[in-house]
From TrEMBL:
One of its GO terms (biological process) is methylation. It comes from Kitasatospora cathayae. Keywords: Methyltransferase, Transferase. This is Class I SAM-dependent methyltransferase. The lineage of its organism: Bacteria, Bacillati, Actinomycetota, Actinomycetes, Kitasatosporales. InterPro entries: Methyltransf_25, SAM-dependent_MTases_sf. SUPFAM superfamilies: S-adenosyl-L-methionine-dependent methyltransferases. Residues 54-144 form the Methyltransferase domain. GO terms for molecular function: methyltransferase activity. Gene3D superfamilies: Vaccinia Virus protein VP39.
Length: 220
């Protein structure tokens, strides 16, 4: 495990905007029926695989963690921002939230039934992403489910494209490149959905929803 060089800047930036972020995005799933359906499919796959806890990595103020709990999952949240975790605990006192890094999770090997990474890798520089997906793989049980949401590159041949973000520099990812990184650590793509932006969206980027599963055998 390693700590990300980019983490302090990202953590401090989100600490500074935590209150405003929580107010702005609390209902963000309301107008996203396709994403709600994918989360429901993710939850069903976790339950079919034998349950197990589900980590919402980069959980922010915890509204999606609560949504996962509403889908019947034993979900908990982790975020690098102490301010976000404070807000998540205040809003959802019945759920567990912890401060932590996606590249150095305080979780035992192979114990989770699922991992959700909803736009939490967008601030991870390309050279640090392999360590993060390696942690995703490490904590998942064989057959455990992974759902990653992020912005997709315009050119699939380009592994990553940076863009200005209101909080801190962010990145879009090639779906094939991301699936390849997962393959390298024993996680196999199950399905991907590329969503076109709405004309009213602030960022006119495609969004990627990538569902994958931890291989049952280490050499697969």
């Amino acid at each position: 495990m390693m700590e990300l060089d980019s983490l302090p800047a990202t953590r401090d930036a989100y600490d500074a905007v935590a209150e405003r972020y929580a107010q702005q995005f609390t209902d963000s799933l309301r107008d996203r029926p396709l994403e709600r359906a994918l989360l429901a499919a993710f939850a069903e796959s976790v339950r079919a695989g034998g349950e197990g806890e589900v980590a919402d990595l980069g959980c922010g103020p915890g509204y999606v963690t609560a949504h996962l709990r509403g889908l019947g999952l034993d979900a908990f949240g982790i975020d690098a921002s102490p301010a976000m975790i404070r807000l998540a605990r205040e809003a959802n006192p019945d759920l567990r939230f912890e401060v932590g890094s996606m590249a150095a999770l305080d979780i035992e090997d192979g114990v989770l039934g699922g991992v959700l990474s909803r736009f939490s890798i967008i601030h991870t520089p390309p050279q640090e992403l392999p360590a993060v997906v390696g942690e995703f793989a490490r904590v998942l049980a064989p057959g455990g489910q992974l759902l990653i949401s992020c912005y997709a590159t315009d050119d699939p041949a380009v592994p990553a494209q940076s863009f200005d973000h209101t909080v801190v520099t962010a990145y879009r990812w090639s779906p094939d490149h991301l699936a390849g990184l997962l393959r390298d650590v024993g996680v196999t793509e199950v399905a991907r959905v590329l969503c076109e932006p709405k004309p009213t969206d602030r960022r006119q980027f495609q969004e990627l929803q990538l569902l994958a599963a931890r291989n049952h055998c280490p050499d697969q």
